Amino acid sequence: MKKKYLAVVIAASLALSACMATSSDSVSDTGKNASTQSSENSANKVFSQKYLFKELSNGLRVLVVKTDYPDLVSVQIPVSVGSRDEDEAGKTGFAHFFEHMMFKGSDKFPQDVYSDLFKNAGVDNGAYTTNDYTNYHLDFSKDHLDKVLEIQADHFKNLTYTDAQFKTEALTVKGEYLKNNASPTRKLLAAVRKEAFDTHTYKHTTMGFFEDVEAMPNQIAYGEKFFNQFYKPEYVSLVIVGDVDPQATMAMVEKHWGNWKKGDFVNDIAQEPKQEEAKYVHEKFDGLPGHWLLVSYKGADWQPKKKDRAALDLISELYFSNNSALYQELVVDKQLASQMFNYNPETKDAGLRHVFIKVNDEKDLATVRDAVNRTYAQVRTELVSTEKLDNLKSNLKYSFVNSLDSSESIAATLASYMHFDRDPETINHLYNSFDNISADDIKRIANQYFIDENRTTVTLSALDKVAGFDQEVDLNGAVAAIELKNSQPSTPQFSVLDNTNDSPLIDVNFLFYTGAAADPVGKKGVAALTARMLTQGGSQTRSYQDIKKGLYPIAGSFSSQLDKEMMSFTGRVHKDNATQWYQLISDQLLNPGWREDDFKRLKKELIDGIKSGLKSSNDEELGKEVLYSELYQGHVYENFNSGDLSDLAAITLEDVKAFYSAQLTQAKLHLGITGAMPSDLKAQLMTDLTALPVGDEKRLTIAKAPVLKGHHATIVEKNAQSTAVSFGFPIDTIRSDKDWAALWLVRSYFGEHRSSNSYLYQQIRQARGMNYGDYSYIEYFPRGMYQTKPDSNLGRSSQIFQVWLRPLRSNNDAHFATRAALFELDNLIENGMSEKDFQATRNYLTNYAPQLVASQDQQLGYALDSEFYQTEEFVKYVRGEFAKLTLDDVNRVIKENLQTDDIHYVFISSDGKDMQQRLLSEQVSPLKYNSEKPAELLATDKVIESYKLTLPAKNVEVIAVDKVFK
């Protein structure tokens, strides 16, 4: 960033007469495809002026900003070529050289002609070269805009010079090099770059290597090649700021620059290999008073939308500026140094971040060096105060905005950023990344970059050697020493499934082996309230609104899912925002606020969800939940996961706190992580979770399902437009059993969820058009009317076989459909599956299974489920089991697991008495069709319409909906 505080510190030592060696990037075309963009003011942007932005068909990008400063115009022409692009051996310094040569002019406007025109027009023009770009800047009265654009366009398109001019200017460049080499800071920068980089072009400075500069007069042919490669419209941006008409200005640009022919050269700079060890070099400078120390670390490449660059800049200001504690110690208090400043050039690729210190006495060089590195160790081990960090962010932002106080300053600033990706919004992206940096980000990123292997140290003095300086600081050792002083974290007692990978999306699943089955008697619903309080309530330090506000801009999520034996807290965030997200959600989970207003709100929502959601407007889900409740009477599975209404009304916040303390323990926690979670954040997560109680119960003890004898029916009477039907019975086979895969295949054939391929669907819906769908299950599948695939983390120690008929038009149709499903189930048990159906279903599931884990979060969820059931990874598990199956196996499993002697039916009906009468009297339930049907189907209907459900009167109950889950 071009910061005023930085410029003040280093301008005197780093400025060139025509070439200010700042830093920057090379072109990265974002592909506007000759589109035109305009920007409106925004209070959230540091650069909020309106602008007109267009990419011409030849690749030239043009940015026009109208300002209120009268008469004046500033034209800046950043070319995305700098010393970084000089990757041919022996050919360094040419980006800077052509900054000089561009002033030679063209045949139409040679130097003496355009210089006279500029002088008479009062044009102030100059240029400078950096690591990654070269910028040409002109300031003048608006009346001369058209002529200036014409002259500059002709120079860029038709630069002309003689061999003599080339050779003469090469001598001038050599003189400039020698002049600059007299600056201590320049010598330090040249030395550190040469030492720190082995292969990257950042090894040489903007001026290039001296031997290459000396050889430059004989490189005329290469000079022409260099110019023709980079001085093309796709490498160039035009920034025009001032008292102009944007549309008219754009027309001028197109007139003079539009016919410039696009090039085809793309430069591919090889990245620097990872540095393997700390480096040190001493440079002798005869006659230099005092001693200079430069401590440099490799930093981040240019990434304005990520946190690294912004965090590193903040670190420099917090710990190494003239407002820092280190400056106070070394310069003010102990007076070991007379100067200290930081310099952090913005570079396209990973460059160096510098701390310069002028030390008075040789004996203090090692002391000062150690103090610098000790400070870096401090950054790696502490959390900077939020107030201090926020104050710095505010200062940087408003200092930047305040500096945009003229057309020239606005244009110069835009040019210094436009060259990166040739997008004016780059500035705002960078400052937005500043806004998102937290204290945790500072610490995490410091640990990533400020390591011994990234350091290069240079000393500069009149001495041949600095005595006692070879023993470098062990930064990792310094960090370890600081951390040793802190209390050691407890040994984690929870299970970890670490599936971290390169995905930019991070998914975390905090899965506790507890749930609604752990609700105490009389407090049914406390688990549900606990789960909601931890994801929809505030923390000790933030309100829920503050947490939502923090998660919104980073699109971070954190939610809960509750079942009988599992309480899952899942979250997702992009890796760039991981620390900020974790700071918010970990506070919720581990440091809940337990606010009374949150509790009242969530309890009200939970009660309303049962009354108005499940019981009032979701007949199909209600029927399925009532079936589970009836099959598990007297069992811990009996109650609805959200609780009973009477219990919920009486539950207190203290009940929730007690459940949290007793049930959310390390022993019951199974942590799942996937995506590119930073290692230090992962370590922090592991440490933080040790704050949970250890506990000794690893999972809930679940009894077998109650024994079901005979046929039973529960009819829930309510205002309903249709009749919902569910029926089933408990089964002993769960996912970990040897016959589960075969039974899973059977239920898919019989009634695959939301699939038209299933047998029940074809018989009841397809052939008869009775309803929307007909499905079967061997595992709990809530929310089936809203989704096509099951959720993970619904692991249970007991399951039921269930048939779901959704929905039926009347009690008569419901009666017939139930009979039809029972009829087909009896046939399946009696006759089994055919070889054709077995092969087809096995092929289908073998290919379909990966779809259940198609997303990263589902992969993680299913992997955690496999741990619960102690099976292999899901897809591998089912495919392996299917490969071993035979038709005989499947038909044996059908007979051993399925039956129709002991069944419970649930009907949701608007006329419960009518439904009851139909069931008890075995009333015939004929179907009427609105079209002709095959005789075979009609004959089967005659059998089905009188098919016996065999329900004794004592086993059929009609209950009003308001009595359900009361």
Automatic annotation (TrEMBL):
GO terms for molecular function: metal ion binding. Keywords: Signal. Pfam families: Peptidase_M16, Peptidase_M16_C. The keyword Signal applies. Residues 225-396, 651-844 form the Peptidase M16 C-terminal domain. SUPFAM superfamilies: LuxS/MPP-like metallohydrolase (SSF63411). Residues 62-207, 508-634 form the Peptidase M16 N-terminal domain. Residues 1-21 form the signal peptide. PANTHER family: METALLOPROTEASE, MITOCHONDRIAL-PROCESSING PEPTIDASE SUBUNIT ALPHA. This is Putative metallopeptidase, M16 family. It comes from Colwellia psychrerythraea (strain 34H / ATCC BAA-681).
